[in-house]
């Protein structure tokens, strides 16, 4: 049985159930396929510079200790995020000859690598030193190859996959009855972190426009409100627009699936997005998706699988939402289903194990 070590600076806990949930889902998927996975991860979001530095130092030392003790038993390591996580895998390869795979999720390239030349340099070393690189979106592959000089044949485009046992079509009225949503309400749903980069303020402005034509429309937001400064800004924006928007903190995935099924439109107005997994989950449930024409969303919602709108443009977003509300419910279903079929857990597991096999074989051939 293969044995791999997974490093991640994001992983959910009981207190923070959605923090890096996509990594947990993949780890559980790998284990279900008979792969022994050792996990060394951070399951607590940062709280201040001092606490964050301490948290990362403990994690790095714990990870290095694991590599020292298990260097002869681990086939490879898999790092989620090029920086800082990938540095652990790079060290493991340089010190102990353990090959590694790194998954680029977007923020590590779009934001982290742009913070300083030093971080960009580490990111380049991690990506160029990897045996195989996985990017969750096509545009990220272009960045990894073009900006960081990684050979294209070593870069694979592969999402984290959608769990179709949780995200699948279900009767809308049944979901609405369970959640207490009126049957005549036109529900717009957003799921994601409550931050400016997710386009939440743009969505508020767009919703104000939509309600002038569709007064029965309602907007519900599900996501972490840990950014207090942004939540204050959001509250002021809501007062200035005189619109009522409901919000709740992150929910378990089964509950999220129910909300998506109850919605008329799922909206993801991000300013940048590596892939947009939650949009794929909405497509798997059968709900129409409106999203920004950025990053992975451009490819995921392309070919009329969803409705693409200009980022940071409330007017364009409002037009997209009105279009989604007014077109037939099944308008994009067939194309969306085809997109979902290419990202099921079975497909992802097969592709991932193929990559692992190639890396392990390369190690054994040396």
Which residues sit in consecutive blocks of at least 5 with pLDDT less than 50?
none
Tell me the name of the CATH class of the largest domain. Alpha Beta
What's the number of helices?
15
Tell me how many strands there are.
12
Q: Could you tell me the strand content as a percent range? A: 15-25%
Instruction: State the separation between the terminal residues, measured CA to CA.
Output: 20 Å
Major beta sheet, specifics?
6 strands, parallel
Q: Would you tell me the overall average pLDDT?
A: 94
CATH architecture of the largest domain: 3-Layer(aba) Sandwich
Order of helices and strands: EHEHEHEHHEHEHEHEHEHEHEHEHHH
> What's the number of structural domains?
2
Principal-axis shape equals globular
Write out the CATH superfamily name of the largest domain.
Glycogen Phosphorylase B
* Helix share bin: 40-55%
Overview of the structural elements:
There is one protein chain. The protein is α/β, with parallel strands linked by helices and 366 residues long. The protein folds into two domains: 3-161 and 344-365, Rossmann fold (3-Layer(aba) Sandwich); 172-341, Rossmann fold (3-Layer(aba) Sandwich). It has 15 helices and twelve strands. The strands form two sheets. The chain has a six-stranded parallel β-sheet, sandwiched between helices. It has a six-stranded parallel β-sheet with strand order 9-8-7-10-11-12, sandwiched between helices. Helix 3 links the parallel strand 3 and strand 4.
